[in-house]
Write a structure and sequence with these properties.
The two termini are 23 Å apart. The chain has six helices and six strands, in the order E-E-H-E-E-E-E-H-H-H-H-H. With 195 residues, the protein is of the alpha+beta class. Helix 4 packs antiparallel against helix 5. A four-stranded mixed β-sheet has the order 2-1-6-5, covered by helices on one side. Strands 3-4 form a two-stranded antiparallel ribbon.
Length: 195
C-alpha cells in the first residue's frame, strides 16, 4: 500500500465503515505514523489535528474500532478502513457521526441482542438460561431444530416450515456465541467459497 502522504501536509482522510453493515461511521485523518500504528495494532489510530498528536479512537471511552480491512483509493490519497465498532462511535453518543445505526440486516441485530443477553447474564432470558446449560445442550438444541426443519420441509405447511427455519437460525446464533465465533466470520467463509 503506497499512500501519498505528501498532498496535504502529511495527512490523508480516512473513512471508517462498519465492516458488517458497510455504514459510514466517521471520517478522520492519518499521518504515516498513525497509519503504521493502525496496521500494527489492528485498532484505528488517527492523527488529531486539534490535539496535534496521535489519537487512538476509544483511548478514553473504550469505544475502539477493530480493523478488519484497509483499502486505498485509486489516487492513493484516501484510506478506507472497515472496522468493528465497540459500542457507539460518535462523541455525541450516536452510533455514527453521520446519524443513527443502519444495519446490514436483522440477523446482525439479533446476534447483538443474543450477545447482550449472555454478556449481561439477563435473568429470566431464555437465551441466557440455555447458554447456562452448557455447550452440549446448545448443540443438542440446534440438532433438534434442524431435525424439525427437515420434517416440516417434507410437509406442505409453509408457516410451520418458516417458523422452524427461524428457530434453527436463532439457536445457531446462540451456539456461535458460545463457541466464540460471529456471524460475520461464517459469512466470510461463504464469501471465500463464492470466489
Amino acid at each position: 500500500m503506497n499512500i501519498d502522504f505528501n498532498k496535504d501536509n502529511g495527512l490523508v482522510p480516512v473513512i471508517i465503515q462498519d465492516s458488517r453493515t458497510l455504514q459510514v461511521l466517521m471520517l478522520g485523518y492519518m499521518n504515516e505514523d498513525a497509519f503504521e500504528k493502525t496496521k500494527k495494532e489492528g485498532i484505528v489510530t488517527f492523527f488529531s489535528r486539534s490535539k496535534n498528536r496521535l489519537w487512538t479512537k476509544g483511548e478514553e471511552s473504550g469505544n475502539f474500532l477493530t480493523v478488519k480491512s484497509i483499502d486505498i483509493d485509486c489516487d492513493q490519497d484516501t484510506i478506507l478502513i472497515k472496522a468493528v465498532p465497540k459500542n457507539v462511535v460518535c462523541h455525541t453518543g450516536s452510533f455514527s457521526c453521520f446519524g443513527e445505526r443502519n444495519t446490514q440486516g436483522f440477523m446482525y441485530e439479533l446476534e447483538d441482542k443474543i450477545s447482550q443477553r449472555i454478556d449481561t447474564k439477563a435473568e429470566g432470558s431464555y437465551t441466557y438460561s440455555l447458554y447456562q446449560r452448557g455447550i452440549n445442550k446448545m448443540a443438542q438444541k440446534v440438532g433438534e431444530e434442524a431435525v424439525e426443519l427437515v420434517i416440516e420441509a417434507k410437509d406442505n405447511n409453509d408457516d410451520l416450515f418458516k417458523n422452524e427455519a427461524a428457530d434453527l437460525l436463532y439457536h445457531f446464533l446462540i451456539l456461535l456465541k458460545a463457541k466464540g465465533f460471529s456471524l460475520e466470520e461464517i459469512e466470510e467463509i461463504l464469501k471465500d467459497r463464492n470466489q
